[in-house]
Amino acid sequence: MLRFVKNAKKKPEFREIGGLTVHEIEHAEKTLIKIVQAKFFPSEEDSFPNMNVITDEEVIKKRVKTRITERSDNPEFIYPITLPGVFLHNGSLNTITNKIVMLEHKFFSEY
């Protein structure tokens, strides 16, 4: 979708074609996370009253500052992304959260 919008603004000879690049996929994932966070966590004070929430330099808005911040590790591990969890009305995991978690499990299980 992001490539389509980008290509729509370009002359035909400058449009990108072919498979998506790693950068495009990563950017799409971060944009999706930002949209989900804006929908489910409109206010940090109300959504995370007892947590230290930070905004990173990238597209992703809300990460939780945990006790392991002094550890020398991957910043994505030290500052996890906040995503919506279980819906109270039916007990199921948010669809987007579920897909992101499953993709990450699949990615890391291959190592």
UniProtKB/TrEMBL annotation:
<protein>
    <submittedName>
        <fullName>Integrase catalytic domain-containing protein</fullName>
    </submittedName>
</protein>
